[in-house]
Amino acid sequence: MIIGNHDTDKAVFIIAELSANHNQEFNVARDAIKIAHEAGCDAIKFQTYTADSLTLNIKEDKFKAGDLWSDEYLYDLYERAAMPYAWYTPLKAYADELGILLFSSPFDHEAVDVLERIDVPSYKIASFEIADIPLIRYVASKQKPIIISTGIANIEDIELAILTCKEVGNENIALLKCTSAYPATPESMNLLTLHDMHKRFGCEVGLSDHTMGMEAIVASIALGARIIEKHFTPDETLDTPDKAFSLTPAQLQNMVISIRKTEAMLGKVNYADKNKTYARSLYVSRDIQKGEPLSKENVKSIRPGDGLHPQYYEEILGKIATCNIKAGTPLSQALIDWKPKA
What we know:
Layout: E1 2-3, E2 6-7, E3 13-17, H1 26-39, E4 43-48, H2 51-54, H3 74-81, H4 88-98, E5 101-106, H5 109-117, E6 123-125, H6 133-140, E7 146-149, H7 155-167, E8 173-178, H8 193-201, E9 204-209, H9 215-222, E10 227-231, H10 249-266, E11 281-284, E12 299-302, H11 313-316, E13 320-321, E14 336-337
Parallel strand pairs: 3-4, 3-10, 4-5, 6-7, 7-8, 8-9, 9-10
Antiparallel strand pairs: 1-2, 11-12, 13-14
Helix pairs in contact: 1-4, 1-10, 6-7, 9-10
């Protein structure tokens, strides 16, 4: 998948998710872009919504938030977590200036229009929006790469979302494995799903991680993830809604380093270790005179590995030296008379 100038076939695409950690302060959001860029992330992602685009302002128990926010009503939570739409143009300009991609998760048609006006390079569909088929269709119609989190989805939900994208001619789709819990526990991750997801749906896959550590990210890359998304906070002293499961700037930088190291370790399929210097090989262990037979007394299998392969040891015993050979010489074909004895 190509997102902006990034090819996920060549390197894992790393997304720093700001979410509600801007604290509704413009300078905090601006600083977050710089922090993500300096950490080595490929993109910073926002969430584009208003409280009215997500829920109703009704104070009943069924409109209460869960997980970390169980004492709040959804409307109040979203109202204090939303990023003002007026910020998008200057923030996109700043991201372009630094050279980091900026995109977002829209939650209604108006949000998509806001993001189209600043020409984001990609879109993300949040986990709970995978059922919003009209929204997915509208996003996909913009013919930009679309990344879909699958946190609450079953196979049929994912198939419908993919079909919806393809119906409007957009096949540039990636799926993120996601556990929609904040924070997510290690045993809830089921990362083996990544391999099945890639095979079953034929899409690029990745991980949107809500766990408290780095282990899920490293493991997911080993399992084929090509996109990683992780929440972070630019200022850990701020009391923001998503702070509890967000990385600090230092942790974000360490995450990027861990991802790049993991990629380097995975490498490619390769059974040959280049460093065979210290493998065993056949060496002359005692001076041998021309015409003298090779024996267990004058040839040994030792390190280093630039002599004849040890597999020939039994075969060379009793063969005749073609010249004088000094102890410490690696045995070679040319030093041996291979003709059978008379």
